[in-house]
Amino acid sequence: MKQTLQLKLSQHLTLTPQLQQSIRLLQLSTMELNQELEKFLTENPLLEREEGDEPAAVVALNGSEAPQVQAPAEETGAEAPAVDSFSADIDWAGESGSGSGTRDDGDEGDFFQVAADSPNLREHLLRQLSLTKLETRDRALVAFLIEALDEDGYLSQTLDELAQLVPEELQIDPEELHIALKHLQNLDPTGVGARNCAESLELQLLAQPESTPHRAQALAIARGHLELLATRDFVRLKKILQCGDDELREAQRLIQSLNPRPGAAFSLTETRYVIPDVVVKKIKNVWVASLNSDAMPKLRVNRMYADILQNNRNYSGSQLSHQLQEARWLIKNVQQRFDTILRVSQAIVDRQRHFIEHGEVAMRPLVLREIADTLSLHESTVSRVTTQKFMFTPRGIFELKYFFGSHVSTETGGACSATAIRALIKQLVAAEDARKPLSDSKISEVLSQQGIVVARRTIAKYRESLQIPSVSMRKAL
User: Fold this and answer.
1) H/E stretch holding 309
2) What is the value of pTM for the model shown?
3) What is the mean predicted confidence (pLDDT) over 416-427?
4) Residue 100: its pLDDT value, please?
5) What is the mean pLDDT of residues 61-78?
6) If we measure between CA atoms, which residue out of 163, 181, 182 comes closest to residue 172?
7) Residue 268 and residue 248: Cα distance in Å, rounded?
8) Residue ranges of E strands in 247-285
9) Is 420:363 a contact under the CB 8 Å cutoff?
10) Model confidence at 92, in pLDDT bands (50, 70, 90)?
11) What pLDDT was estimated at residue 89?
12) How far is CA 151 from CA 24, 118, 154, 190, 271, in A?
């Protein structure tokens, strides 16, 4: 009896293939889903795309989780910026128009950004080297040094260490490497081939005309006092350079105009592409989430094979019959996936409508449990739905999990989201007097006056997450 009960319990706990597929599809991003569907379409002849179903449009996220997109003129009162056809097709104000995001065949260039075949730093330098009139041996030594550069354009190894890498039979004179380095440092970009940041800045300053205002003070700082400038020790700097506030300020401004990483412009940056699953727009003064029709694959059962199976009972246990059932499962599970995404998205929009209208400072605290209880879903289901699924809003493209986060208490007994607090910190720092920047304690005090109780350590943690320097590093003349 006990074994029978255990067996039944095991059967109930074992997920059916259909449920396993449903969970898996929910975990996938839309791009991953399309890749998975291509595999199903290849393996199952009973499954096919509807006519006119095209691959979903992608949007580039260039190293940013939540790129900011300016709201259209209807929302901000400003002139609408030039945007791609995806955002242009959206009826932000909820009036008549092509809100479905459809596009013409000739609009494909608006969706895809094709990276130009630009040379990397090594190729850029070698092309310049090939145009010089150096002797073959000198050119080879410069090319050798080019190979030793890091991605920022610095020579991280000393010339003595590099000389040891050259075979003894070539009999390289150390002075030859010094000369080769001078040739390398004369190439573009200016500052390349330096051993450290200070030398790179010095090379860039030396390349400027001697008549450049405050060049002498900037050179003195780059050659021996860069650390004092980094720590904002302006008193010692003025004493060393024997100059006043205005001169030091201009010298600092000149140094800040230089490029501390001359080779970084040639580094390949990885562009992350996503497909917005949901589009948010305003309809009759209500923010409504709708599925991106371009992101939804349009699948159907192949009617010819389905008719054959229906008219011939002999095929009831065949491979085709099994594939028909799989095709129907997949279509149902894909539809269920997008229905769940839409339900969760609308619940998020209902709670974060003030964020859409006013920005980060209006973000309210939100946890997965709140959405799960509202929609009668399991918390793990909401977690899957909000991972790698994206929402297209007037304020940018955001992963659904972006709208969730921790919170702190307010004096009135309420709560304020961590995102809103970070936004307030950014606003306070942006508006501060650079000569008397706000300390973490002062920021905590200012927020406390607004009814938001945040400890100094919490302010420091949020400030560091925003990559805002400490008060001493923000101090200016």
Assistant:
1) helix 303-311
2) 0.64
3) 88
4) 36
5) 40
6) 163
7) 36
8) 272-274, 278-283
9) yes
10) very low
11) 43
12) 39, 15, 7, 15, 18
